[in-house]
Automatic annotation (TrEMBL):
Keyword Cytoplasm attached: yes
Name by which UniProt lists this protein: Phosphoribosylformylglycinamidine cyclo-ligase
UniProt keywords, alphabetically: ATP-binding, Cytoplasm, Ligase, Nucleotide-binding, Purine biosynthesis
Places the protein is found: Cytoplasm
Species for this entry: Microcella putealis
Gene Ontology terms for molecular function: ATP binding; phosphoribosylamine-glycine ligase activity; phosphoribosylformylglycinamidine cyclo-ligase activity
């Protein structure tokens, strides 16, 4: 690029030098996720991953997922805390891959911003890299795009995509689910990364700022809301290995809430009643619904209410699977059972996201 062209680009609001500095600040964190299967370093046009590692599979299937963090970034921007967003991004992407029983291999990220603030970008990517390391995922590439005029100087959004692998005959899903299977819940760490448009609406209605300190939130409101999404991948993979064949299906409770996401991984004709009395939704959900003057039940189609992941498990192995998950750092408990008995399914959530799956409804009252 000629000097005149470079100067013109800077005049247009794009700072390539700031982008280069951001890369330098994040290089060590990204490199820490690279194992022997990653070829080359940071800064290439494409990330390379040695696929010869897949030769140990009889029939490897590649699994892929892409996602973002949504309007939770508005809170990170308001508080100028950005590393937790990286954890959220990895959780939203990689924990979708493990749902089919796949082991994550590598991930790429994309950050769009109005102006590159090198330290901020490095914080975001550092968070992504830390979560990638925790899930055994190599961060092999990414892109930071500066869009002056389209985004404000302090605005940004993040997205990511990952690839994993699973043996063809080990894929988890509805076809493995049978009558009498037990549904096990794994605790969430809070709101995770869904339903923040509702969160922001409730706070705005009450004129509550993210910077406000409220005892019922346990401190600064925004910091409580930024609690990172729990990472389920490593403990689940450990559990699948410890109890081969015991887990039949998994459901990541994201947009749509508990019933809709569980229904997606049940076969047609199967139904589950999830017993609310088996858990007490964390305080953040209770505080927000109280502020809204509403009930916890009214938010069941939006928030996870304390259930971040669900497993459908063979009944004979349910206790052992629950113990393994809990020992691995995922508090887990039984919330229901699968039935294929004929019954009236009025009031049940039946399928979601274009999937004609089973039927689920929540019953009873939440524990105090």
């Amino acid at each position: 690029m000629t000097e005149s062209a470079s100067s013109s680009y800077a005049a247009a609001g794009v700072d390539t030098a700031a982008g280069d500095l951001a890369v330098e600040l994040m290089k060590s964190a990204v490199a820490a996720t690279h194992g022997p299967n990653v070829l080359g370093g940071v800064g290439g046009f494409a990330g390379l991953w040695d696929a010869s590692a897949l030769t140990r599979y009889r029939k490897p299937l590649l699994a892929t997922s892409t996602d973002g963090v949504g309007t939770k970034v508005a809170i990170a921007q308001a508080l100028d805390i950005h590393d937790t967003i990286g954890h959220d991004l990895v959780a939203m992407v990689v924990d979708d891959i493990v749902v089919v029983g796949a082991t994550p291999l590598f991930m790429t990220d994309y950050i769009a911003c109005g102006k590159v603030h090198p330290e901020r970008i490095a914080d975001i990517v550092r968070g992504i890299a830390e979560a990638c390391a925790a899930t055994g995922t190599a961060l092999v590439g990414g892109e930071t795009a500066e869009h002056p005029g389209l985004l404000g100087p302090d605005d940004y959004d993040v997205a990511g995509a990952a690839v994993g692998v699973v043996e063809a005959d080990a894929v988890l899903g509805p076809e493995r689910v049978t009558d009498g299977d037990v549904v096990i819940a794994m605790a969430s760490s809070g709101l995770h990364s869904n339903g923040f448009s509702l969160v922001r609406h409730i706070l705005a209605q009450r004129s509550i700022s993210f910077h406000d300190e409220l005892p019922e939130f346990g401190g600064v409101v925004g910091k409580t809301l930024l609690e990172p999404t729990r990472l389920y991948t490593a403990p689940i993979l450990q559990t699948l290995e410890a109890h081969p064949g015991a887990v039949h299906a998994l459901s990541h409770v994201t947009g749509g809430g508990i019933a809709a996401n569980l229904a997606r991984v049940l076969p047609q004709g199967a139904w589950v009643e999830v017993n609310r009395a088996t858990w007490s939704p964390p305080a953040v959900f209770r505080v927000l619904t109280d502020l809204a003057g509403d009930s916890l039940e009214s938010t069941e189609g939006t928030w996870n209410l304390g259930l971040g992941m669900l497993a459908v498990v063979d009944a004979d192995h349910a206790s052992a699977v629950t113990a393994t998950l809990t020992a691995a750092g995922l508090p887990s408990w039984q919330v229901g059972a699968v039935s294929t008995a004929t019954r009236d399914l009025a009031g049940f959530e039946q399928g979601a996201k274009g999937v004609d799956g089973g039927a689920v409804r929540l019953v009873g009252s939440y524990a105090d």
